[in-house]
Amino acid sequence: MSRAAHLLAIDQGTTSSRALVFDPSARVLGLAQAEFPQSYPHPGWVEHDAEEIWRTVLKTARAAIRNAGLEAADIAAIGITNQRETTVLWDRATGRPIHNAIVWQDRRTAEACARLRADGAEPLVSATTGLLLDPYFSATKIAWLLDRIPGARAQAEAGRLAFGTIDSFLLWRLTSGAVHATDATNASRTLLLDLRTGTWSPEMLRLFRIPEAILPEVRDTAGLFGVTEPRCFGAAIAIRGIAGDQQAALAGQACFSPGMVKSTYGTGCFALMHTGDVPVASSNRLITTIATQLGGRRTYALEGAIFIAGAAVQWLRDGLGVIAHAAEAGALAEAADPAQEVTLVPAFVGLGAPYWDAEARGAIFGLTRGTTRAELARAALESVALQTRDLIEAMRADWGAGADTVLRVDGGMTASDWTMQFLADILGAPVDRPRVQETTALGAAFFAGLSAGLFGDQDAFARSWSLDRRFAPRMSEAERERRYARWRDAVQRTLSRGMRV
Ligand SMILES: Nc1ncnc2c1ncn2[C@@H]1O[C@H](COP(=O)(O)OP(=O)(O)O)[C@@H](O)[C@H]1O
Ligand SMILES: O=P(O)(O)OC[C@H](O)CO
């Protein structure tokens, strides 16, 4: 085996940057993680300092290599995976961002989206991009920056600015400005990509008023993107894979066949169902996204995105102060009074799929004098499972009988056995937690490894997936449906005026 037989996965998430070194049998040899600050300049706005993101990525990547007892020469390739949609605009000459990154959770463009919707633009947007008019996606964030930063639009038109989602920005920095590219999975989150051709759509660029000169080149998910500037790691390393974090997790969970579903529970929750090489248009308010692009051939997924999952647990900890650590939430929920029916609808930043209500805000129902932190903790954990049920119902309605009845789960929140059991109960379906919990990073390493000739093909990789624990449903059907009906009622009461049915 040649010396350079390891893979470095850079996983740039919403709350932290992580880096992992894998050996060719997908074992983690080294890991490093660094949180970075979130900035909330106005209610509903969320920003990141892109320089801070860059610093934490470089620091954790170097530390992961060191912690593995390796050096740059041992790394065959880097795979990048990232929080998607988050928008950075930078100056091509200096490489400096012209503003903080606008994060996927940010709602500042809700009005702009509502206006486009009122103008009747949504059917064309959906047919072209597979997405909906929601502030979640990049296009209206780019337009906001171009319109609000003095001189930005003129500079963009003159080709002096570059746009990128986080993958693109990191690629630019790692290659010292030599490569301005993205992969098809990330590009499919911008509202600017034609889902079927994998190219930027002139109609969408016109609709959102985005100058083509700022856009990165769209490439395959696995392939040579460039090599790192030797100063980054002491020697140049090839960057051979890029994928949005949810698409990376879909691969890391070995969901390669149509009908297979994974759900990732981090800050938000993202359920993706592989639909093979056909983009399936949802009739149930899900979105259609590119799962991979390999050798120019695209595969697709149906996706349901929930904005608040683990973030509800963070709210218990940081907002309410009712727990000191996320891991305490499960035990507290277990101790809650079964007779109290408290429901939390965590619409802290609006509601994502299948409601897409940017104006809704969170609500709690069923409070009594007897309600304590335990019932609040249970309601927060339950809300994550109940929202997943909404997504799975929509997927089954779109995909029919071929939908897998088993849900593969990953992400920080799957550490909570209580939540996973409740999830199986409320879905009425088994929930499988794999042994390798780092599925997002593993997916990024898989794509890089595919291009570097390590890791074998998809089938070999799929055979290496192994189960940690299956949570089987235990709740009676009557109880499950009673609780789900209570949730549906609570959501109706939370939706903003005009969105209620
Ligand atoms: N034992 C636990 N019980 C419930 N929630 C948890 C637990 N451990 C972690 N979490 C939640 O999981 C999230 C972190 O997951 P992670 O996959 O690292 O997220 P991200 O990639 O979005 O930063 C946090 O929101 C945290 O509150
Ligand atoms: O950083 P995460 O894991 O919360 O994922 C963010 C998603 O990619 C947003 O679409």
TrEMBL record:
ADP binds at T14, R18, T267, G310, G412. Key enzyme in the regulation of glycerol uptake and metabolism. Catalyzes the phosphorylation of glycerol to yield sn-glycerol 3-phosphate. One of its GO terms (cellular component) is cytosol. The gene is glpK. It catalyses: glycerol + ATP = sn-glycerol 3-phosphate + ADP + H(+). Keywords: ATP-binding, Glycerol metabolism, Kinase, Nucleotide-binding, Transferase. Pathway: Polyol metabolism; glycerol degradation via glycerol kinase pathway; sn-glycerol 3-phosphate from glycerol: step 1/1. CDD domains: FGGY_EcGK_like (cd07786). InterPro entries: Carb_kinase_FGGY, Carb_kinase_FGGY_CS, FGGY_C, FGGY_N, Glycerol_kin. This is Glycerol kinase. Glycerol binds at R84, E85, Y136, D245, Q246. Residues 263-451 form the Carbohydrate kinase FGGY C-terminal domain. GO terms for biological process: glycerol catabolic process; glycerol-3-phosphate metabolic process. Belongs to the FGGY kinase family. GO terms for molecular function: ATP binding; glycerol kinase activity. Sn-glycerol 3-phosphate binds at T14, R84, E85, Y136, D245. Pfam families: FGGY_C, FGGY_N.
